[in-house]
Amino acid sequence: MLEAHSPPPILKTACSNCSVVELCLPLGLTGAEVERLDTLIVQRYKVKKGAALYRTGDPLRSLYAVRIGSFKTSVVSVDGREQVTGFHIPGEMLGLDAISIDQHACTAYALEDSEVCPIHFAQLEKLAQSLPSLQHNLNKLLSREIVRDHSMLMLMGNMNSDERLAAFLLNLSQRLSSRGYSSKEFVLKMRREEIGSYLGLRLETICRGIAHLRDQGLVEITARDVRIHNMDGLKQMVSGCNRQSH
Amino acid sequence: MLEAHSPPPILKTACSNCSVVELCLPLGLTGAEVERLDTLIVQRYKVKKGAALYRTGDPLRSLYAVRIGSFKTSVVSVDGREQVTGFHIPGEMLGLDAISIDQHACTAYALEDSEVCPIHFAQLEKLAQSLPSLQHNLNKLLSREIVRDHSMLMLMGNMNSDERLAAFLLNLSQRLSSRGYSSKEFVLKMRREEIGSYLGLRLETICRGIAHLRDQGLVEITARDVRIHNMDGLKQMVSGCNRQSH
DNA sequence: CGCACTGTTGATGTGCATCAAACAGCGTGG
DNA sequence: CCACGCTGTTTGATGCACATCAACAGTGCG
Q: What's residue A244's pLDDT?
């Protein structure tokens, strides 16, 4: 199920010295509280590019905080069609959908060589009983995912292809920027087909959308390298938010 | 913001004598535990048809369990377009998306004269500290909403109009059936336009879809009355799950 | 009775899927 | 080193599913 490479000399596996701590589960906890959370994370996992961290149906053992790299999560219909439900970058949590029935409801693939912090869920729930702010953070994390999904439904229901692509780029830009990366230059770790699945479009439509945004001088995308030239223009495009035409 | 009709002679407002308790937050709690939860629900609200229980931006005070009636939740884009994000029947919880930023992220409208149990959220979190199974239920409730949204994304990304409609009817049928209502005959409380928004389609397409299902002998829908004639046929339709054609 | 609202059905247009072909990058092996 | 295959990306041509526009029927209500 998952690549259990034990990284031989284990890095001090602690939230307290993690670069994404301020975006993750321990947000707002005191030093002493974070140390108690640390005890749940016995060892980080490395996941090789293309490998699955967990698969649909796997029992829920841990939630996973992305530390390095990136992931896609996807569900597959009975007839084998894939729907990408999200992309995840450092500081973001994986596995939240498994809590509902103690089984993972999607599969998480590493888009590049990556590293995660497994957080044993039963222990997390136990610890959260004595740490109200930890419980509150978990509640918020879950709720935030719901809000995110609702805005994806808005996108799928009401935006045309170019607007979807613009919204996708803007969203990624903002999340990267909040992690200290450039908001204007970044690399897409996923294929066109995966972007298409995520946005409810075909890969060819993604290519054409990229060409349209390029022709309007908004962004320049060569292969997987993105350079945003006109952030406000992109934002305006999304706020148009029209169905099909116009 | 909400219709604060104090129902003059207050019904004994308790989970313990509620008809949907086995579907709601207290699921699996002991009698004594349910009684403690009862103390949070000081008074039920009635919400008139068409009125909003809460609106986008309202501060999160309570979550709401639907007791009687039904609701739709929707978000509105900057340019005023509505996306229905869900329909809610008795036993289902409203307001989960508000936890993320302590503000409601959508608006909840009553589709008919309805009644809800407000559950003061701050008190709920406090109580959940001493009732692990209550906390666990809340976690599951949140996670279940995420799973539901992901299957909606699959629907929006991969199903054609007739399949979406079939999936919608089947889903509603199952939820009603688990509440003791008939799975084969029920009434749609929402308009065609609202179904369309929910499924990412126009109202005319919903009408045509209804006609197609009728022509195949699967269901009969006159105005808002639904009669399912061939449940397996409907299921088969959804499992086809093809994009656009076929 | 008249008006507003909701639902149905037909005619037409279009945005995106589909099919197709060519190109770029990249690792492998001769 | 280049030839080769493989994967991913780009661009063009065509068709279709659904949006759009429009007309009309059914229903409820002041």
A: 37
Set of chain B residues whose Cβ sits within 8 Å of the Cβ of A136: 125
The bases of strand D with some atom under 7 A from any protein CB are 8-13, 16-22, 27
Q: What is the pTM of this model?
A: 0.90
> Which domain, by its residues, includes B128?
10-155
pLDDT at A9: 41
Mark which of B155, B185, B200 sits at the end of a domain. Answer: B155
pLDDT at position B8 over 60: no
* Interval A59-88 mean pLDDT: 93
CATH number of the domain where residue A98 is located:
2.60.120.10
DSSP B66-117: EEES-EEEEEE-TT--EEEEEEE-TT-EE-GGGGGTTB-SSEEEESSSEEEE
Residues of B in contact with A125 (CB under 8 A): 132, 135-136, 139
Same domain, A138 and A165: no
Shared-domain flag, residues B67 and B132: yes
Among candidate residues A99, A126, A155, the one where a domain is terminated: A155
**Chain B neighbours among A 130-159 (CB < 8 Å)?**
132, 135-136, 138-140, 142-147, 149-154, 156-158
